[in-house]
Design brief:
single chain; alpha+beta; 3-stranded antiparallel beta sheet; 3 helices; 3 strands; 42% helix; 13% strand
Length: 83
């Protein structure tokens, strides 16, 4: 319900939008790559996804080092939890 300043990049927004549309469900790294990098979805390194998720967490998490909204699913991807 709050505005994020500065606004999210398109890539960050697209990834957050994917997680939001599937909140409570795990999204695979492949799904996240397709949402954030549609022009090269099969050539996205896991480190690129991690960095983008880190940037989103910095913007939306109260404590990014202890995320409560964007949760890592080890070996699979990420899930958006809402309190």
């Amino acid at each position: 319900g709050q505005l994020v300043s500065p606004p999210l990049s398109k890539k960050e927004f697209d990834i957050l939008n994917l997680l939001y549309s599937r909140k409570g469900e795990a999204c695979s790294q492949d799904e996240i790559a397709k949402a954030g990098w549609p022009e090269r979805e099969y050539d996205v390194a896991p480190a690129e996804i991690q960095q983008c998720i880190r940037r989103v967490r910095l913007r939306v998490e109260p404590s990014p080092s202890s995320p409560q909204y964007i949760v890592t699913i080890s070996g699979y991807g990420y899930r958006l939890d809402t309190p």
